[in-house]
Amino acid sequence: MCYYAMTHYKLHYACVPCRVSFKRHPAGDREQPCPNCGRELVCAGHDFAPPPRRDTAAWSAVSAVLAAGLRYEGLEPCGCGKRPRFRPRRR
């Protein structure tokens, strides 16, 4: 059963210059402004896990991924095809 299709879940939006992320409902056509700086937030997907603000190296990697137009999603954006898989340790 597809749980993502039954309910409208909030997406993760990130502001890379401020190094913050927020969960918001999809806005459709309008842009989501950052409450700190006013720039447009970038949609990071359903499965985005933001790094700590002090970790500038991780945020530079997030910046490169989001600048390439990629999003942090599972195997399928609806969540149906997710299977357990290896996740590397954080440290």
Automatic annotation (TrEMBL):
This is Deoxyxylulose-5-phosphate synthase. It comes from Streptomyces sp. SID7499. It comes from the Bacteria.
